[in-house]
Amino acid sequence: xxxxxxxxxxxxxxxxxxxxxxxxxxxxxxxxxxxxxxxxxxxxxxxxxxxxxxxxxxxxxxxxxxxxxxxxxxxxxxxxxxxxxxxxxxxxxxxxxxxxxxxxxxxxxxxxxxxxxxxxxxxxxxxxxxxxxxxxxxxxxxxxxxxxxxxxxxxxxxxxxxxxxxxxxxxxxxxxxxxxxxxxxxxxxxxxxxxxxxxxxxxxxxxxxxxxxxxxxxxxxxxxxxxxxxxxxxxxxxxxxxxxxxxxxxxxxxxxxxxxxxxx
Length: 264
Ligand code: PGA
Description:
Oligomer: single chain
Bound molecules: 2-phosphoglycolic acid
Helix content: 25-40%
Strand order of the largest sheet: 1-10-9-6-2-3-5
């Protein structure tokens, strides 16, 4: 696992966006196949999306041959609801880039048969050639996508029940009323994420510090599902100083030294 540490969220987000842009551009040079990008919602990726949009506007990046799969969506929240992840993605990314809408995939939280919708989603990912890079955030409880603590590390896309903690944290988007936060969501599984060729996890702010410490220094455990990244051959965490704050100083120094050595 690599850990890239920047002073603040903005610098870390710019690093992440350029990393993603370089990966998309590198594949375009050697292959006609689309780049398959896994995407996340939440406050964390907003700056990264803004930088990706800037790169598109500057002519340095194109999403014309990019296929996207989002991590999750609430169950039974209307698509047009401002807090649906469909709305989020339009607002923060898709409305600002040159992506072909037919290449955009999000789970339908209003599908008649939710299980079929989840099973089909896995099949669509496979049919697209698998995910090249999955971008994610982490929850304060260490969740990746909506894989709450004690989700199987082998889990696949399915309907999940959100913990009270997650609903409380997300109530900031729903008039601070936990009762307005859907109790269920559909989420890619931990294994859906770790199947990606690369996984890039963003974590910002001291509220993520405990989860990040568990993910990096704790055991690989279903109690902190993002810790599954420890078994991934190409996992990268991109964080700010506040989020790495609960890790040991020696871990911090090591990650900095690795980055310095590899940039020479
Ligand atoms: P956040 O959510 O980006 O809004 O902090 C991250 C997550 O819950 O995975």
